[in-house]
Amino acid sequence: MTIKGKAYIAGAFEHPTRKAPDKSVAQLHAECAKGALTDAGLTKEDVDGYFCAGDAPGMGPLSMVDYMNLRVRHVDSTDTGGSSYLVHVAHAAEAIALGKCSVALITLAGRPRSEGMATGTAPRPGSPAQPDMQFEYPYGPTVVNMYAMCAMRHMHDYGTTSEQLAWIKVAASHHAQHNPNAMLRDVVTVKEVVESPVVASPLHRLDCCVISDGGGALVVVAPEVMKSLGRPRVKIVGVGEAPKGQLGGDVDLTFTGARWSGPRAFAEAGVKPADIQYASIYDSFTITVLMQIEDLGFCAKGEGGRFSADGNLISGTGKLPFNTDGGGLCNNHPANRGGMTKVIEAVRQLRGEAHPAVQVKNCALALAHGTGGSLGTRHGSATLIMERE
Amino acid sequence: MEERKLPAPEPNPETAPYWDAAKNGTLFVRRCAACGRAHHYPRTLCPFCFSDKTEWQAASGNGTVYSFSVMLRAPAPYAIAYVTLDEGTTMLTNIVDCDFESIRMGMRVRLVFKPTEGGAPLPMFTPA
Lengths: 389, 128
Ligand SMILES: [Zn+2]
Known about the structure:
The complex is a heterodimer. By secondary structure, chain A is α/β, with parallel strands linked by helices. Helix content of chain A is about 35%, strand content about 15%. In chain A, helix 6 packs across helix 10 (about 285-295). The longest helix of chain A is centred in the N-terminal third of the chain and has 16 residues, at about 25-40. The radius of gyration of chain A is 19 Å and the shape is globular. Chain B has one helix at about 15-25; strands spanning about 30, 40, 55-60, 60-70, 80-85, 90-95, 110-115, 120-125. The two termini of chain B are about 25 Å apart. The site of zinc ion (ZN) has 8 residues of chain B, from loops.
C-alpha cells in the first residue's frame, strides 16, 4: 500500500506576521487555519481531521479543536520538533488513504520573538525524567553549539569551509530580497557571513536562522475533494520519516536522518534526486542545509560544501534552487519550527505562485525536507515529495 | 567575566550508581556482558542487543575529542565536546582547564571532575 496519489495539498497559508506581541498563540493557530482554508476554497465546517504538534497550547488537538470549535473524526499530535508538519502531511495522506478523514487541517504557530526566548544560545532544561537530561543539560548544550559540533566534524572529515557554509546564507538572502514579509531582506556576501561574530565555533551569527513569531497552516484533502476545488493540484507522491539519535554512544555527527527518510520518499515517488526541480531544505543553520543536501542524495557525502558554493542554490542560476522564500535563514522560523514554511514554499513553487524573480520555470516536481530537535543529539527527519498534476 | 555555575545532575534509581561513583572520583561506563559493547548514557537494557546483562565498569579516564565547539555567546565562554572514551563509547562533556584555542579534533584528553551546585560532580576532560 502506498500514499502515492491518495491525497493533495489544497490549501497553504503563511502568516504574514513576524512579531505578534498583541496576539495569543491559539489566535495565531486559528488565523493560520482560516488562511489555509480560504486558500483552498473550503470552510471550517469541511474539516474532519486536525493535526498539530508541541507548539499548540494546552492539550494540543483537544485545546485547538475546542478553540476553533471543529467537529473532526481524526486527530494526530505527533511531535518531532520542526519536522512535525511534514510528518503531519504524511500522516494526513495515510489517514485519507484509509478513509479516516477527507479534509485534514494542519496548523503551527508561536511567539518566541515576543516572548524574548534565547532560542539558540541558552541551555533549556527538559523534564528530569527525560533519559538524556542528567547526562547532557549540566554541560550547557544549546541549539547552536550542538549544531556547531556537527559543522566542526564535517570540516574535519571533509575539508568543508566556513566560506562554503556562508554561500548557503548568501543564496537564502538572494531569495529573501524579493519577499516583502522576510525578516532579513538585505543581500549578504560570503565575507559578511564569515566576518559576523562567532556564536559557537565554527558557526557565525549569520550561519543561524532568524527568531520569529508567526505560523502557518496546510489543508490536505482526498482526490474527490481536490477535484471539486478550483485550485492547482499539488499531489503527494512520496513520504519518508526517520528519527536519529546518538546511536547508543556510537555518536556520528556527519550524517542526518535524511539518509534514511530521503530514500524512502524517493522510492515511494519513483523518482531520483536529479528529477527534483525545487527543494525546500530545513535551514536552522547553514550546516543543517549542507548535511541534508548530501543525505538526500543531491550530491555525494562530503561534497555538500563544494555543491552549495558559488550560488548553486540560487534560483535561476544554480542547479538546485532552494528555499526561495528566504527560508528560516532570512524569512521566517515561526515557533522555532521551520517545517511548515518548507512545505508552504514548495506548494507555491508547484502552483507557479512563488515570487516571479525566484519562481522555477514549469516546476512540476518538488521536495520538502524537515529536521526537528537537534542534529547534534536526537532529531526527527521527514521528507516529502510533491508533484503538480 | 562571570564564573560559570554548573547545574546539578538529577539522578534516578537507574542512574544513581553512576553519580555515586562520580562523587568518589570514578567515571562509570555501562558495558553489556551479552554483546560485550559499552554504551552511553547508561541504561539497564543494552541499546545494542537489548540484553539486561549490563554492568558498571570503571573507565580509564582517557579519551579523544570527537568534536567540540567553544560557546562564545555566553556569560562565561565554555567548550562543549563529544569525547570518545578508550572504552569505546562517546559522551557529551566539556573540555576545561585549558586555552580553548588549543583544543583540536582527535586530541587526547584525560578525566577531571568539576563541582556542581549541590549535586554530584560532573566528569569533564582536559588535554592529556
Ligand atoms: Zn548488548
